[in-house]
Amino acid sequence: MRLYLGKLLRKVTNKHLFANQGHAELYLKYRPTYPDSLISRIIEYLHQGRVDNKPDGLAVDVGCGSGQFTRSLGQHFDRVIGVDVSESQLASARLVPRSNIEYLSGSGESIPVSNGSTDLITCAMCIHWLDFPKFCDEVQRVLKPNGCIAAFGYEMQCCRVNGKKVEKIEEAYNKLIQEKTKPYWTPNRKHVFNGYADIQLPFENNKSRCHSTKVTSKTTQKNKRLLFCSNKES
Questions:
Q1: For the chain, what is the mean pLDDT?
Q2: Which of 1, 20, 172, 234 yields a CA-CA distance of 20 to 30 A from 12?
Q3: Cβ atoms within 10 A of the Cβ of 95, count?
């Protein structure tokens, strides 16, 4: 049984899992949305230090999947582009159209937009799959001065039934994830398990700034860790 479980988990936790049509359909149906507080925190950070009142032009959502977070950005930007390596995921995202949103094939290591064109880059629960050095080169290439990147993920914080925390269920869940199945996840998943705490984006020169914070959704009880980096205008 242990051998079978190992084979099964190794099969279903490969990142290429997300590319097929069946999983794209499941993502569109079940992937969680994000709280308004998360969007507000990102927009607040983007606007820090601005000296003009120009509207936000372009946001690029890398690893957009079926477009849950991409659609949230549509309310705040003139134009939004969702980028994903999976044509099946992009097809699912296009089933929920918005007039100012388009979906393009691409990756975090090859973002299909022009140099210096982008106000905001987001990575919703996907930065742990990316080649960090290549991705950061692309971030530097496409961001405008004072543009920023927001990368975030989530994990179950607690289990509640009728609004009350059920510790035994939470303990059983944590034991299943941390002890039973954790050895079978891909190495990239370690970043999710530790809340992205050890992800270091290489923007440490005097033209950029980075920090992290946390946002908790009361409705979903999912803890979200944000990483912000901003290109200061020189």
A1: 78
A2: 172
A3: 11
Q: Report helix, strand or coil for 232.
A: coil
Which tokens go with 213?
């914070």
- pLDDT computed for residue 230 by the predictor: 59
* pLDDT tens by residue, 92-111: 999 999 999 999 999 999 99
* Residues 56 and 148: beta-carbon distance below 8 Å: no
Cβ neighbours for 48, distance < 8 A, ≥ 6 positions apart: 230
Place of tokens 């799959």: 129
Task: Report the predicted TM-score, pTM, of the whole model to 2 decimal places.
Answer: 0.79
Alpha carbon distances (Å) from 83 to 126, 145, 168: 12, 22, 40
d(CA 180, CA 211): 33
- Helix (H/G/I), strand (E/B), else coil: 55: coil
